[in-house]
Each structure stands twice: as C-alpha cells, then as structure tokens.
Task: inverse folding
C-alpha cells in the first residue's frame, strides 16, 4: 500500500493514522466526555440552588450519588473534582488542542500528514484508556476521587483520608499519567510537523496564527507536563508504597494520629509541582482558542490580522511568562512575602502581552467588511469574555486582594470565564469554521445563531455573577451555602446562576442536533466557502487522504491577505503565485 | 538586515525545503530529551526541597552502584565505537557489547535494590532511600527503553541499514544512550553527594 492510498475499514475508522480521522476521533471522544461533565455540573448547580430539596428520581438515576433523593455531601465533592478534571483534561484539551491541532496543522502548513502518523494513532489510543480509567473512578467502592481537580495531598495521598480518597483517587492518578503520556506524544508530533513538514514557501513568519498557537501550546506542554508526571509518581508511591514525599508528620485522620508512617513530607511541594504544570496548562488551552479566533476574525472581517507579527511575539511572551507565575495559586499556602511579591508582579505582567493580543483582535475589525456568520460571532464573543475574565484575573494576581478572594466563588467565576467560556467559544468558532472541511457539509446557520444567542449571554452573566458570590464570601467546594447565615442573603444569586447556566446547558442540544444533522444532511460545502486565504481552503471539502489530490501547494505570501490587492473586495490565497500585493490602502486623514 | 540578502524570495525559498531538510528525527529526538530532562529536573527539585525536612538522614548507598556506573560508562563508549563505524564492519559487534553492558547495568541496579532490601532499607524507611528507589527506578525504565532502541538499531545494523551517508538512527540511538548515562551521573551526584 502506498503512503496515501485509501485504507480499509479498520485502518480508516478505528486504528487510523490519518490526522483528519484522528482529529475526528478526538473530537467525538471529547464530546462524549463533555456530556458526562455537563451532567455532573448540572447536579452541582441543582444542589447549590436548592440545597435542602429531595429528588427521588435522581436517587433512581444515580443510586451511588443520591440517597433518598439527597445528594451525599462526599459525592458532591467527587462531582466537583470529576467535573473539573474531565472538563480541563478530557474535554477542552482533547477538543481544542488534540482535535483541532491534529486537523488544522498539516492542512495549514501544507503537509500530507503528521510527522509521525503511527505515534499520532498511539497518542489517541492512549487517551482512550485514560478516559475509561477516569470514568471508572465513579465505580470505586468509596466513590470517585474527591480531592479537587488539583488533587492536593494529604487528601489525595492517604486512602483513609476521606471517602473518595481510596481506589477512586488511584484511578484518577493513573488516568492523569496516561493522559500526560498521550499529550506528550501529541506535542512531539505537533512540534516536529510544524518545524519540519512545512510546504515550500511556508516560512514560520507566514504561518497562520492558529498553527502558531498550537505550536506554542505544544512547547509549553513539553516543558511543563513532566513536572506533573513526577508529582503523580511520587503521589502514587505515597499511596501504595507508604513513602512520605508529601505527607507531613502528625496527621490526624478520624481522630487517630497516623503513626505508622515516617511523615516529614511537604504538601507544599506537591502544590509547587502541580501548579508548575497547572498554570501553563491554562495557556495550553487559552492560546489555541485565541489562534482560532484570529483566523476566524480575519476571514469574517475581510481584513489582515492587525499586528500579525506582534501577535506572534505577544504569544511567545505569554508562553514564557506562563511558566514562571505558578506561585500565584499559592498565596495563602505559606510563602515568603518577597516570593509572593515576585509572583504578583510577574502575573500582572502577563496582562501586557494579553492586552496586545486582545487589541490586535479589535484592530482587525477596524474598517472591516464584516460577514457575520456563527464562527465570527463566537470569535467576537471571545474578545468580550477575555475582557471580562481578564479583569477578575488582575485581582487574583495581586496577593493583597487574592488573600481575601482565594478559594471563593470569585476564583470559580474567573477561571470559568477564562478556561471554560473562552476555550468553549474557541471550540465553537473552530467547529463552525472548519466543519465544511471536516465533513464536506455546511452547519445550519440559523441553528448556529440560535445556539449562540442561547449560550453566550447566559454563560457570561452566570460566571460574572459567581464573582459577586465570591465577594460576598462564599467559598468554593461548599456543599450547602444556606448553612451559613452570612450567605443566606445572597442565596438568590445561586438560584439565578443555576437557572442561566441551565439554559446554556440546554442550548447545547441545539449544537449537538445541528452537528449530527448537518454531518449527514447539511448543504454540500464548496472548496472554500468562507473565501479564506490559508492553505486548508485550497483542497476539496472534505480534504482527501493525503490532503491534496495533486501537488502540495507552494506558499507565496503571508496568511491573511484580505482586501489588500488591486481588487478592494478580493482576497489572495497563500497559494496564489505572483508578487506580494501592495499593503492595505492608507487610512484617510480623518480616520487617523 | 537590509537589501536583497534578507528578502524572502517570492516562494519563500530562503529556507531549505523538502529533501534538503534533515528529516523529522533530530527534532523528535530533541523533544524527547527535553521532556526527559524536565522530568528529572522536577524530581531533583523535589529532592532539594525534601532534604530540608527534619527526617532527612542519608544512608550509605550500596557500593555496587559504583561498579554499575563504570559498566554504564563503558557501554556508552561501546555505543560511541559503533556510531563512529557508521555501519562498517564491527558496528553490530559494538552495539551488541553496548546492549549487553546496558542489561548488565540493569541487573546491577536490581542487585543494589536487593542489597538495600536485605539491610531492611525499604521505600518507607525514610525519604533518602525512597528517593533512591524512585530515581533509580525511573532511570532504569528509561534505560530499559534505551535497550529496546539499541536492540532495534542492532537488528537494523545487521541488515545493513546504516552507511556513511545514512546513519541517523544509529546516531540518535547513541545520543539517547549517552544522555541517559549523563542523567545517571547526575542522579548519583544528587543521591550520593548531597
């Protein structure tokens, strides 16, 4: 069989080495995991809105979680833990980075496939057992892992510490170890493909920003994920080998002093190792969302990306800073005030390159000829979400305000805006933008807009409201807020948040309906339905095996040549030969 | 930075494309080595923090470790001898020697573990032995992977896959093996000297 001949059923759909099929596998795996994580989030919101209420039918549906219609408090913590872990690592990471990265990179750089197709397949088939182990955590005798998505010891290191610290936690650690292995293989593939398999003429300075962000995210991952591998191995040894890497002396569990262990370990050490991965991971997710938004904005606004080169530099600065600010998650964990000061300053510094990126997004819209489709709507909404979410970040970056806000709903609201709302908008923008290339059909535009208007206001209002709860003093991981007199006056906010987020969750049925209907019955897509300039739009939709039926195109210009040539309404594909067209016409005096 | 010299040609051919590039393997190997280096850096950082604990009492390491270290260094020399031969006669012999010594190193590491166990020093005995078991174990896993790579390289060398102009696989196997040798020296310094 030659390298790019069409393979048989098993090699095509199951053990595929074609980056486009692997991208789809990742996408649908993420979709399945998202359904689980979304259901858990709704159970959490139900509990927070109506803490004393009994739900007999939920006892029947989830007998392990509910007893006599009441959600068990320890299972509430499991739900919070699993919702966070699965959403971050098994939904957003898989859909945004693994799926879109796999699909877009070879098509945008002009490669026939990834550099290591077999490793690519291996990477997917490593994440499948990781997903199963993570879900299997719920079948552990004392419940799923319950120590939060950050898995801080001693809760995560002692199986007798709490319900959920037993087998469920062990499965959680094993699933995370497999996930890191898979993601490292993926990152290796992304980096090698981008550095080595670019088409003739595709210099790094001509690469679309989506691919740039996948590249930077992979570099961050390669540098930071090994820290969690190390932490996971040590945590596992603390659990099964009776070591005390992270377990301090004098631990008392259920009134009993733990004397059979050496003790002397440092829970703080785990926190450092975890956040050395944990904070950069946020950027591994957010940066590709921004990259996708840049591609979508340029095509929708019919303008070259404003400050294409400065955006690349800003992305690189964000990436470097993301790796040296992890301590801002630990201001209240115990830290030399001077170190805290450093982490505050370094974190606030990130706002500078981030502001450059957001301003470049807004600048791209200047004198635009907007073609408002669903993908562009989501890219625009992302700018809003970055603005709202970013403001909260400044308060959390500053130690003085963070010490009050730490572990409150202010934090929950902030990180949901940044790594749930921004990233999901990136996933939706990417889905609406590349769906024609993925499946050869168009998504329904009316259903897309319905999905947009039901989702966007609800999630932004819902998560902003969480900031208010946090300022009123509501802690995260709280099973029953009404148990505290000082929180009773703001309980209405919890009800409100549950209602609006419930609407947003229900709206996802519109998305799923649109997705599956259009996959089979959507209008057939042309080669370049958005009249976009990057290389993936120079091949038929869906892209054939080997990506281009004939020769791989040669690249002649930068990625976003919209309305820059002689024809003020035209666009120039990167694969169009000829001299570089003149720069965009100068602004009229009045507009300067 | 001015003038025609730095101008990208119309098709961007200032950079080498296609056949002129060195292939994906050097980049792939670089990424692997960076990942491994970051993993052991994280372990080292953890050790540096943990050794400040009141219960940190370093135990004398089993003396066989020094023999193992010499075995691993000679094995690196053998790999280098194979690499310099670039597929000519003797390549496979030297690779075989390196592979055998690598396996001997692993057996020696197991003997070191056994000697600790016989003294009653276990994982739970204290943080220093725990780090010894942890670091030698994770390093041993990487050596095991390296033995697999050497085995594959030996198999290819026997089939005449390498020559003066095509020895990428051989060179990369050698780089990985040297790298893991250097990591072992580093770990030994961290465990025995600190």
Result:
């Amino acid at each position: 069989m030659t390298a790019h001949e069409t393979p048989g059923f098993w090699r095509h759909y199951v053990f595929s080495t074609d980056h486009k099929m692997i991208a789809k596998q990742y996408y649908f795996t993420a979709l399945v995991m998202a359904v689980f994580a979304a259901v858990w989030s709704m159970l959490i919101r139900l509990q927070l809105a109506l803490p004393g209420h009994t739900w007999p039918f939920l006892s029947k549906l989830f007998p392990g979680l509910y007893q006599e219609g009441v959600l068990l408090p320890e299972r509430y913590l499991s739900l919070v833990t699993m919702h966070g872990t699965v959403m971050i690592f098994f939904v957003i990471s898989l859909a945004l980075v693994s799926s879109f990265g796999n699909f877009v990179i070879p098509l945008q750089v002009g490669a026939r496939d990834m550099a290591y197709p077999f490793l690519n397949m291996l990477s997917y088939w490593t994440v499948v057992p990781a997903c199963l182990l993570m879900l299997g955590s719920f079948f552990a005798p004392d419940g799923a892992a319950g120590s939060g998505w950050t898995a801080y010891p001693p809760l995560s290191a002692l199986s007798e510490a709490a319900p959920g610290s037993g087998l469920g936690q062990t499965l959680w650690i094993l699933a995370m170890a497999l996930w890191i292995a898979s993601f490292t293989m993926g990152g290796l593939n992304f980096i090698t493909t981008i550095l080595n398999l670019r088409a003739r003429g595709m210099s790094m300075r001509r690469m679309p920003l989506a691919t740039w962000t996948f590249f930077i995210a992979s570099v961050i991952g390669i540098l930071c994920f090994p820290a969690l591998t190390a932490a996971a191995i040590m945590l596992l040894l603390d659990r099964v080998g009776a070591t005390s890497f992270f377990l301090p002396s004098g631990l008392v569990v259920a009134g009993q002093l733990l004397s059979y262990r050496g003790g002397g370990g440092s829970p703080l050490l785990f926190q450092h190792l975890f956040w050395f991965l944990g904070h950069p991971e946020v950027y591994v997710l957010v940066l590709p969302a921004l990259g996708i938004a840049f591609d979508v904005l340029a095509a929708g606004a019919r303008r070259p990306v404003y400050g294409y080169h400065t955006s690349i530099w800003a992305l690189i600065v964000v990436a470097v800073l993301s790796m040296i600010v992890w301590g801002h998650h630990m201001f209240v964990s115990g830290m030399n005030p001077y170190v805290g000061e450093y982490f505050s300053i370094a974190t606030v510094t990130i706002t500078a390159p981030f502001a450059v990126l957001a301003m470049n997004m807004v600048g791209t819209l200047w004198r635009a000829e907007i073609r408002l489709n669903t993908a562009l709507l989501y890219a625009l909404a992302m700018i809003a979400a970055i603005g709202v979410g970013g403001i909260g970040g400044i308060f959390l970056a500053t130690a003085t305000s963070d010490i009050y806000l730490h572990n409150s709903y202010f934090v929950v609201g902030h990180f949901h805006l940044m790594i749930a709302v921004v990233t999901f908008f990136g996933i939706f923008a990417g889905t609406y933008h590349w769906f024609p290339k993925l499946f050869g059909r168009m998504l329904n535009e009316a259903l897309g807009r319905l999905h947009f208007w039901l989702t966007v206001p609800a999630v932004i209002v819902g998560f902003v409201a969480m900031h208010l709860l946090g300022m009123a003093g509501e802690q995260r991981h709280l099973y029953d807020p009404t148990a505290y007199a000082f929180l009773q006056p703001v309980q209405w906010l919890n009800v409100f948040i549950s209602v609006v987020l419930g609407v947003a969750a229900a709206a996802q049925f519109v998305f799923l309906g649109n997705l599956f209907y259009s996959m089979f019955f959507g209008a057939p897509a042309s080669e370049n339905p958005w009249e976009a300039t990057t290389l993936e739009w120079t091949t038929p939709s869906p892209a054939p095996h080997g990506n281009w039926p004939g020769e791989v195109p040669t690249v002649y210009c930068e990625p976003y040549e919209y309305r820059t040539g002689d024809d003020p309404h035209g666009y120039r594909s990167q694969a169009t030969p000829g001299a570089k067209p003149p720069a965009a016409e100068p602004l009229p005096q009045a507009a300067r | 930075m001015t003038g025609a010299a730095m101008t990208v040609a119309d098709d961007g051919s200032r950079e080498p494309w296609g056949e002129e590039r060195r292939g994906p393997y050097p980049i792939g190997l670089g990424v692997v080595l960076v990942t491994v280096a970051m993993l052991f850096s994280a372990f080292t950082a953890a050790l540096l923090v943990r050794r400040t604990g009141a219960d940190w009492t370093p135990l004398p390491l089993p003396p066989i470790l020094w023999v193992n270290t010499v075995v691993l260094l000679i094995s690196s020399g053998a790999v280098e001898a194979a690499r310099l031969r670039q597929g000519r006669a003797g390549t496979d012999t030297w690779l075989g020697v390196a592979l055998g010594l690598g396996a001997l190193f692993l057996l020696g590491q197991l003997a070191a573990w056994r000697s600790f166990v016989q003294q009653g020093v276990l994982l739970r005995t204290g943080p220093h032995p725990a780090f010894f078991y942890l670091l030698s174990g994770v390093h041993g896993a990487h050596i095991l992977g390296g033995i697999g790579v050497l085995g594959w390289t030996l198999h290819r060398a026997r089939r005449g896959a390498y020559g003066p102009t095509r020895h990428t696989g051989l060179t990369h196997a050698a780089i990985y093996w040297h790298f893991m040798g250097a990591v072992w020296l580093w770990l030994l310094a961290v465990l025995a000297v600190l």
In short: Residues 581-592 of chain A have pLDDT under 50 and may be disordered.
